[in-house]
Amino acid sequence: MRVLLLVLLAWPCCSSNLSSPRALRAGPPEHVISLLGLFDLTTTTGAARPEGRSELEAARMAVKHINLYSSMLRGYKLRLLYNDTKCDPGVGVDAFFHALYTRPSTKLPMLLGSACSEVTESLAKVTPYWNIVQVSFGSTSPALSDRREFPLFYRTVAPDSSHNPARLAFVRGFGWDTVTALSQDEDVFTLAVNDLVTELEEANITCTATITFSESDFKDQLRYLRDLDTRIIIASFSHKVAPKIFCEAYQLGMYGSDYAWILQGSPLDGAWWADVSKTDCSQSALKAAVEGLILVSSHNSIVGSEPSLSGLTNAKFEEEFRQRGLPITRYTPQTYDAVWAIVLTLHKTESQRRSLGLAPISNFDYGDWRMAHEFHREMAGLDFLGVSGPVSFSGSDRVGISAFYQVQGGIVQKVALFYPSSEILDFECPQCEPLRWQGGQVPIAKREFRLRVVTIERTAFYSVACLAGAGIVLATVFLGFNLYFRKLKYIKLSSPRLNNIAVVGCILVYTAVILLGLDHATLPAGGTYFANVCTARAYLLSAGFSLAFGSMFTKTYRVHRIFTRSQSGVVKNKLLQDTQLISLICALLLVDILIVTLWVSIDPMQRHMRNLSLEISAIERSVVYQPQVEVCRSQHTSGWLGALYVYKGLLLIVGVYMAWETRRVKIPALNDSQYIGMSVYSVVITSGIVVVLANLISERATLAFVTITALILASTSTTLCLLFVPKIHTIWLHQDEDPIVESMGLKIECNTRRFVIDETRERYYRVEVQNKVYRRELAALDVEINKLERMLIEPPPSPTTSVSVSHGSVSLPGSLKEDDGMSEGDEAEEEDSEVRLSPLPRPVPTYNPRGAAALLLSVVPSVVPRASWPCAQAAERQQVTFRSEPELDQASENEASSTSAVALLKKLLPRIWKPSRAKANRSAIAAALRMHVNYVTGLVPDPHPDRKFSLSACIAAESPAAGAVGGAGAAAFRERARGSPRFPHRIVPAGSGLLAPTARTGKCRSLDTSIDAVLCVRCGGVQGRNAAACAGCARRDKPRAASLSPNCDVWCVEQNLAADGELTITIHRTESQCT
Fold it and tell me: Which N-terminal stretch is annotated as signal sequence (predicted)?
């Protein structure tokens, strides 16, 4: 301690921050008591502190009043020496020692100051060594209350800890039994809160938590405070950080009628909530956050009109101080009263010493500890009325009146006063406004939680159960109807077995709807009843959906399959049978059973109570009900439900896609295809709504149950009605009518089929179907034309080509040309000998559209124009069986079937085995020529026997005109065109060459001795010299001589026998029609 004293004594001499001696005012040495005042006039940065000037002026005014009007210090005059501490402990201690050592003859028995707690603490540690009593007017740090560390310290300002009894009385007054403490991590704030927590525990008030935060990190602490769910918050922090705290509280919702904030503060701190420059909130938001805030501070005025010890009332003091041109700050009245407390202590000590015959106080010396002890004793016993109210001390702290203020509409209003002497909390004090809580009710300290199980209302459950039971009865009636009329043709066409499966699925769904309403109110208490109900729900809903929707899905799949195959031109005789569709439904059902069984086995469902939103009791605001609802839950419920949702969602998507694709398709063989699509739409829409609502309104048990079950019942009932009501209606009205004939727009009168009157619509349908047929055939012809063009353009494999004719077979060259040098020979040699064609120069092939078309007609089978409904042969070629048509000739059907099989095999072989390109080209040309030679010779039967080649003589003149040739022939063709008996007419394109032969004429060489034979395409043979035989052949087949078949052409055969015995045959085609 001696070392510290030596350091302190030597420090002023070497300090460079000493104030100028002129700052101290000296007075006459006789009977003058000097008072040292240290004020915080500026800050550490050199900026002026306005509050310091007001505090200094209040001290001056008190000294003036004492010297002029008070008789307490008779024979003495009080003089004030002051200096600036700059709110810096070092500067403050330097100013203190400067006063001691610059005027050693002037004794300073008392020290006034300061307002900064840090400076005051430093001075209060030094003054006891000089036996100087220190009185502060503005230091509120709770640390200064430690009498052991600061034995000669007093203060006329009430510290934060002195308001703890007032806070405790305020909390008790509103019946709050649970609070939370929040303080800034500085001693001036945390120490007072720690003392308060101790007093609260002694008063049997629970402090849930004591939370400390820093200025840079407070958001996490506020979130933790919110999670504690305590609504009464006693806070202590600087008004500089207060805007940030309340801005965050606003964002967290910790304001309003549910919260009560009690903050250490004064109205003189200003409306700090109006400064939003350092926050993220608007001014209105921050104003809403501080609405209803309770502020606690010292009451700095006299209650009532009673004058103070100095003779001044509050009004006179304020009036006189304002005349000095300075504002009244927070510590101005306390500074005035501090000077009076010092003078009153000196007066009492002087009187005591005179009565005891001791030396007067003017003989004070820094080493006189006895006189310092007397000052300390008299100061502790003071009790007077100052301009700031009653002044008394408890230890080093002033015991004063605590005031409660509330922010009401952005204005701070005084609402209550607490008198520590009587421990009375007065809400009816003068100039006090009524306390106003937001919402008109006092906030509750902590909510009392009570559990309540929410169940489905009995009325709603019984109503839904009755509707589900009615649905089961309806489904049973439909099932009986379907079984009873299962042999009826109309029911057979609708796949009754699939309908039965749909009915069973709907019954399962109805049963699951009833199970959805079983809960705590209807099931027995305890046991595993609810878990079993959860398992049954999963099985029934999943299986019912798969059976009901699966049957509609498979029907839609069948319609879509038929629709897509009919567009591609390939429709099989056997549509998808019911057995195949039932297998698909069983596969869907197996997937459901597998998923649910794995769920129940691996992760079984149990009864789980799910908390809903809290509900405040309408009678007791402190009671909060925690509603709970029973749910089926397992450890991985989301994963299992996700698997089912994905699987069934894909099924719904595919189903609605196929239903949309076939929305305009009406197939007579499936008389409920349109209603199936409507059912699919209904199920898809309802399923989506149910899944969404199950997640949105799950907290309202009754509403969720009624809404979800209503949608399920509506969807299921709609599906049943769409499937069976039209059937019941049709059977009731038209039980004996044929459903297929009815759906085709036909009516039977006297066993003769006729069209309905709507001829325009029927013609439109026929033209539309025929248009599709022609487009496909044109596409096929284009492919063949391109193929033949490539064959013509490619160079020949060799310069020579040989053709052999043996036993009536003829091999044609790649390019047919006429030869005038044919030699004669007898017919026997001609038949037995091998004929070889001499090498002929082949011209460069050129493209001739008419020649290409003629060549194409000679290679590909003929194209028979079709009506809107194909004939029997065309139907057989496309592998479609129309059961409504009359049976045709069995032999022709078999022949057409075999021809179609051969044609299909020829199409598949090139896909399986593809030879080289050159070899393929040679093979294709040889095959085409061989086929036509075979047709010519008649050795190979034509797949269309009704189209025979006609024998006709080559004419030497020009062909007749197109009109002369095609007159009777075209008429005969239109009359003899073969088709379906149902459609006896034909629609033939106007530009078809089948009805109008080309008008261009051609010539064949005249029949002289050079022409040895004529190849008759009609009768398929090579005739002798007498060309009249060909005409005779035509006469023998006279009824078909006028046929307009594209194969009815005349080929002329010319033979030339060279000198060396080589026979050359030239075959060329005429462009005239067969006679």
Answer: 1-16
**What amino acid occupies position 540?**
L
Pair 294, 310 in one domain? no
Same domain? 588 vs 721: yes
Predicted local distance difference test score (pLDDT) of residue 679? 73
Check residue 735 and give its pLDDT: 55
- Residue 780: both structure tokens together: 């096929």
Which residues on neighbouring strands pair with residue 182, listed in sequence order? Answer: 211, 235
Count the Cβ atoms, other than its own, within 10 Å of residue 774: 15
Furthest C-alpha separation in the chain: 188
In 10 A of CB 1041, how many CB atoms?
A: 20
* 1021-1022 and 1051-1057 strand pairing: unpaired
Residue carrying the six token digits 């006429």: 818
Residue 380 to residue 105: CA distance in whole angstroms: 29
Q: Is residue 813 part of a domain?
A: yes
- What token pair was written down for 763? 């013609």
Same structural domain, 349 and 478: no
pTM of this structure: 0.50
Instruction: Say whether the peptide bond before residue 114 is cis (omega within 30 degrees of 0).
Output: yes
- Statement to judge: residues 223 and 365 lie in one domain: no
Q: How many CB atoms lie within 10 A of CB 441?
A: 10
Q: How many independent structural domains does the chain possess?
A: 4
The pLDDT, as a whole number, for residue 531 is 84
Same domain? For 498 and 355 the reply is: no
- Predicted confidence at residue 859, as pLDDT, reads 42
Closest CA to 947 of 957, 958, 935: 935
Sheet arrangement for strand 32-39: 77-84, 32-39, 110-112, 133-136, 153-155
Q: Is residue 985 part of a domain?
A: no
Residue by residue, DSSP assigns 970-1018 as HHHHHHH----TT-------TT-TTTS-----------STT--EEEETB
For residue 577, what are the CA distances in angstroms to 580, 668, 739? 5, 16, 19
- List helix spans (H) across 603-700: 637-661, 673-696
Is residue 816 over pLDDT 70?
no
Residue 773, judged by CB atoms within 10 A of its CB (0-12, 13-18, 19+), counts as middle
Write the DSSP string, 25-70: PP--STTEEEEEEEE--B-TTS-B-HHHHHHHHHHHHHHHHHHHH-
pLDDT exceeds 50 at position 979? no
Angle at 669 between CA 665 and CA 670, to 5 degrees: 60
- What letter does residue 947 receive in the DSSP assignment? S
Query: Could you tell me the sign of the dihedral formed by the alpha carbons of 995, 1000, 1005, 1007, in that order?
Result: positive
Report the C-alpha gap between 238 and 187 in whole angstroms. 12
pLDDT digits (tens, 9 = 90+) for 433-478: 999 998 888 898 887 778 888 888 889 999 999 999 999 999 999 9
Q: Quick count: other Cβ atoms within 10 Å of Cβ 616? A: 14
Residues 598, 731 share a domain:
yes
One domain for residues 323 and 273? no
> Is the pLDDT at 699 greater than 80, yes or no?
no
What's the rounded Cα separation, in Å, for the pair 38 and 83? 5
- The answer to the question of residue 989 being in a domain is no
Strands 110-112 and 32-39: parallel
Query: What number of other Cβ atoms are within 10 A of residue 127's Cβ?
Result: 20
Q: How far is CA 540 from CA 511, 543, 616, 702, in A?
A: 7, 5, 39, 22
Q: 655 is in which domain, residue-wise?
A: 452-743
Exposure on the CB side of residue 238, measured as CA atoms within 13 A? 11
CA distance 316 to 301: 12
User: What CA–CA distance (Å, rounded) separates 815 from 565?
Assistant: 42
Structure token digits, residue 493: 């066409």
Instruction: Judge if 603 and 680 occupy the same domain.
Output: yes
Please indicate, yes or no, if residue 818 is contained in any of the structural domains: yes
